[in-house]
Amino acid sequence: MAAEAEILSQLLILKPPSLFSDYEYKFSPKFQLLKAWESPLPIPLFLTTHAHSVKAVLSSSSSPITSDILRRLPSLQLVVATSVGLDQIDLPACRRRGISIANAGKVLSEDCADLAVGLFVDVLRKISAGDRFVRSSLWPVQNDFTLGSKRDPFSAMGGEQTENLKQVVILRPPFCFSAYEHKLSPDFQLLKVWESPVPVHPFLATHAHSVTVLLCSPRNPNTANLLRLLPSLQLVISASTTLISLSVVDGESPSLLPIMFCRLMSPTWRWAFSLTFFEKSLPRMVPSRWALASEERVSSGFQDLGGKKVGIVGLGSIGLEVAKRLEAFGCIISYNSRRKKANLSYLFYSNVCELAANSDALIICCALTDETHHMINKEVMKALGKEGVIVNIGRGAIIDEKELVQCLVQGEIGGAGLDVFENEPDVPKELFTLNNVVLSPHLAVFTPESFSDLYDLVVGNLEAFFSNKPLLSPVLDE
Questions:
Q1: Any catalytic annotation for residue 395?
Q2: pLDDT (tens digit, 0 to 9) for every residue of the chain, 478 residues total?
């Protein structure tokens, strides 16, 4: 066995990378592993002992390759990083010495992009916050949970005004009605049946000839007899995507009502209200549905991320995968990078502050360098605005973390999804209580598939180097 060990090429590992515990048994037959963290010798003395034999070192974010380490390894010819980012390596010193560098290439890009999109959706839809809400048994007590985010193009149009408020009857408050009642009240007279001391039937009879719109939900089923009490009714709007709340008797839709089905306060709902009351052209301009069956389901036709303007900072292999995924959601992609990418239709901004000013969200995918350190500063966050969201899967120090915390606490930006932090594993405690912030412990690539692919690439680079063949994922001078 000793003879076999002597002919194996040496691989220096200062600290075990994340994949090492699962793949050490595969590394051991291929290389003589010099595991510095297991040696009783101090690191400088350990390096001196192997100074003239070590030609390759495995580097991870937990084991920086500094100029001091390089100075103690005069025979070093290759640094293999287990990450895409290289901020843990003294690149100028390696270049001066002619030391080759290989990184993770594109093998981690898809999993990184998946987490970026997951964090983005979580922040917008408050999935993690909703999970805590349910687990804390608050649902039965508070009933409604805060709404998630969805772009409302009608709000930007401002709507139209009328001197005489039009009446809308509501039997019981739909889900999250309390969050949006204030937006409807200035434009419509809301007849809230549940607040009246008068029984339902007399109440409806009182307003029989003035009510033209009924807002319903699964909480308040509307029978045909109930609808017949409203002879002037023109429109029934459901606060859900189902027709369960509207009863059909003998296969006949009462008054052949044109019905718009959409979720509470979606752009479609407000649009339908406005067209009905102001344009007088509902059948022509609003997609109509006829009630065909008591449990027929109709899609609202809207995606939760559709129309969001997403600015990607760093359109490398990870950024491109993020863009591809978000395009499928109907997002509008723009980007900032060191240079404009050829053959891409995405809008390019050379200035990250301009990108922020023209985006609903920023997703950070770039590498940490001297130029990108604290690139996302207070000016950028201010440009992004109070509804803006920041997602970071790059490196923590790309964002000025103190300013980010302040902006989040003071409501100067809308939310954040963070997989990386400036002083890991320390995370600012101010973030722990914010429901618009989703935190992840730097695990974007922690999947069996990524680790398997990364092992193959690392071994492929090492075997290529020791066989005097081209590296599989070299980091080249730019």
A1: yes
A2: 444 445 899 999 999 999 998 999 999 999 999 999 999 999 999 999 999 999 999 999 889 999 999 999 999 999 999 999 999 999 999 999 999 999 999 999 999 999 999 999 999 999 998 898 899 888 887 766 765 654 433 333 333 333 467 788 888 887 667 766 777 777 788 888 888 888 888 888 788 878 878 877 665 655 667 777 888 777 777 666 554 444 443 344 444 444 444 444 444 444 444 444 433 333 333 333 333 222 333 333 223 578 899 999 999 999 999 999 999 999 999 999 999 999 899 999 999 999 999 999 999 999 999 999 999 999 999 999 999 999 999 999 999 999 999 999 999 999 999 999 999 999 999 999 999 999 999 999 999 999 999 999 999 999 999 999 999 999 987 6
In the residue annotation, 424 being an active-site residue is answered as: yes
Amino acid found at 41: L
Pick the catalytic residue from 354, 424, 430, 463. 424
Q: Which of 72, 151, 270, 395 is an active site residue?
A: 395
Based on the residue annotation, tell me whether 442 is a catalytic residue of this protein: yes
pTM, to two decimals: 0.71
